[in-house]
C-alpha cells in the first residue's frame, strides 16, 4: 500500500510517501524555524500561511523523489490532531481535496501516534507491546503501547511539557529559537552539579510529572544573577537544567516499565534528541537488562514519514470515508 502523508501540526511542513508502512520512499520537510526565530517562538498565523505556500510544492517534490505519480497512490494520510488549529486545518483540507480528486481513501492520524511510529521506520522488526516515553514541545507522556492503535497514557506532565521548558530557558539565555539543540550543545561541557534545581513529585501519581516549577526556578536564577551583576555559569546551568529534566523523565520511565512488565522501551518526540536524556536512558536500561529503541535524530522532530508509517496500521477506510474529518487542537491519545 502506497500512502502519501501530510504533517502540518506546528511550524514544520512535511510530506512523505511510504510503501507498506515501514519503507519510506520520500520524506520532504520545509522548516519555518528561521521565520519564527525573530519572535522567539512559533507564531500560529505565520505557520499556517507558510503551510499554504509550500504544501503543493512539497507534494510534487515528494512524488519526484519517490519516482511516482499521483495515480500510483493508494491513500492520503494527514495529521488531524493535536496541534495548532490553523496549521492543522491547512493540512487536513489539502488532504481532503487531494483524496477526493484522486478518488482514494483518506486516513486521519493522531500526531502522537505518529511520533511513536517513527520507531517502526528506524527499527523494522519492532512490534508492540512496549512502553514509550513521548517528549516533545507540547507533550511529556508515558504511553502503554499495547498495539499499533491501542494506547493508553499512564503518566504525563501536569503543566508544561519538557520541550516547552527547553525552549523558554534557551530564549532567556539568548540562544534563539528553536532552543533545544543550542541548549544541549551549550551544556555538553558544563558541570551538571553547578546549580541545585528542583525535581518534581506528584502526590498519589508517581508516574506524573511537573516542569513549571523547574522552569520558574531557572528563569528566576538567571534574572537574579543578572540583577546582582554576578557571572552566570552558562554551560553549568544548561547542564544542570538538562540533568533535572532527565532525572524527572528517566526514573519514571523505568518505573513504568517495571509496573507494566515490559522489557522494551521506546522514546519519541523532539526532546528525544537531547543527548543527556538519551545517555541516561541508555545507562538505566542497560542496568536493568531491558531493550531501548531510540529513533535517529532525523525522525525525532515533526515529519510526515512517521505519519505515513502510522497510517498503514490505522483501520483501512472505504473510498469515501473520512472526507468529513476535522482538525482538533487537542485530542486524547
Your description of this structure?
It is a single chain. The protein has 333 residues and is an alpha/beta fold. The protein has helices spanning 33-37, 44-66, 85-102, 111-122, 162-172, 180-187, 212-227, 234-260, 275-288, 304-313; strands spanning 2-7, 12-19, 23-31, 75-81, 106-110, 130-135, 140-145, 151-156, 264-268, 291-293. The strands form two sheets. It has a five-stranded mixed β-sheet with strand order 3-2-1-4-5, sandwiched between helices. Helix 2 runs parallel beside helix 3 (85-102), helix 6 crosses helix 8 and helix 8 packs parallel to helix 9. The protein is globular, with a radius of gyration of 20 Å. The two termini are 25 Å apart.
H/E element order: EEEHHEHEHEEEHHHHEHEH
Structural class: alpha/beta
Shape: globular
Q: In percent terms, what proportion of residues is strand?
A: 15-25%
Q: What is the typical, i.e. mean, pLDDT?
A: 95
Number of strands: 10
Distance between the termini: 25 Å
Helicity range of the residues? 40-55%
What's the gyration radius in Å? 20 Å
Largest sheet: 5 strands, mixed
Placed side by side, the strands forming the largest sheet appear as 3-2-1-4-5
Summarize the structure.
The protein has 333 residues and is of the alpha/beta class. The protein has helices at residues 33-37, 44-66, 85-102, 111-122, 162-172, 180-187, 212-227, 234-260, 275-288, 304-313, and strands at 2-7, 12-19, 23-31, 75-81, 106-110, 130-135, 140-145, 151-156, 264-268, 291-293.
Amino acid at each position: 500500500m502506497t500512502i502519501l502523508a501530510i504533517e502540518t501540526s506546528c511550524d514544520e511542513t512535511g510530506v512523505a510517501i511510504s510503501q507498506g508502512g515501514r519503507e519510506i520512499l520520500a520524506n520532504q520537510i520545509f522548516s519555518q524555524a528561521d521565520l519564527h526565530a525573530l519572535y522567539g517562538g512559533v507564531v500560529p498565523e505565520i505557520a499556517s500561511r507558510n503551510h499554504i505556500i509550500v504544501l503543493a510544492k512539497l507534494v510534487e517534490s515528494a512524488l519526484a523523489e519517490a519516482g511516482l505519480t499521483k495515480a500510483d497512490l493508494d491513500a492520503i494520510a494527514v495529521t488531524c490532531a493535536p496541534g495548532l488549529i490553523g496549521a492543522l486545518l491547512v493540512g487536513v483540507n489539502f488532504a481532503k481535496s487531494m483524496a477526493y480528486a484522486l478518488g482514494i481513501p483518506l486516513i486521519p492520524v493522531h500526531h502522537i501516534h505518529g511520533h511513536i511510529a517513527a520507531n517502526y521506520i528506524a527499527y523494522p522488526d519492532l512490534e508492540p507491546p512496549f512502553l514509550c516515553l513521548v517528549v516533545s514541545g507540547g507533550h511529556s507522556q508515558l504511553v502503554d503501547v499495547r498495539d499499533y492503535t491501542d494506547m493508553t497514557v499512564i503518566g504525563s506532565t501536569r503543566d508544561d511539557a519538557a520541550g516547552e521548558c527547553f525552549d523558554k530557558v534557551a530564549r532567556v539565555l539568548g540562544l534563539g529559537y528553536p532552543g533545544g539543540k543550542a541548549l544541549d550543545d551549550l551544556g555538553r561541557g558544563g558541570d551538571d552539579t553547578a546549580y541545585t534545581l528542583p525535581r518534581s513529585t506528584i502526590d498519589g501519581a508517581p508516574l506524573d510529572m511537573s516542569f513549571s516549577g523547574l522552569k520558574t526556578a531557572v528563569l528566576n536564577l538567571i534574572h537574579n544573577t543578572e540583577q546582582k551583576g554576578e557571572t552566570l555559569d552558562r554551560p553549568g546551568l544548561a547542564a544542570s537544567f538538562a540533568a533535572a529534566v532527565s532525572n524527572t523523565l528517566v526514573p519514571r520511565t523505568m518505573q513504568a516499565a517495571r509496573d507494566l512488565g515490559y522489557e522494551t522501551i521506546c522514546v519519541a518526540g523532539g526532546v528525544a534528541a537531547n543527548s543527556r536524556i538519551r545517555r541516561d536512558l541508555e545507562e538505566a536500561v542497560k542496568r536493568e537488562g531491558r531493550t531501548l529503541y531510540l529513533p535517529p535524530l532525523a525522525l525525532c522532530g515533526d515529519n510526515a514519514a512517521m505519519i505515513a508509517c502510522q497510517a498503514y496500521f490505522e483501520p483501512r477506510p472505504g473510498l469515501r470515508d473520512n472526507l468529513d474529518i476535522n482538525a482538533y487542537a487537542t485530542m486524547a491519545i
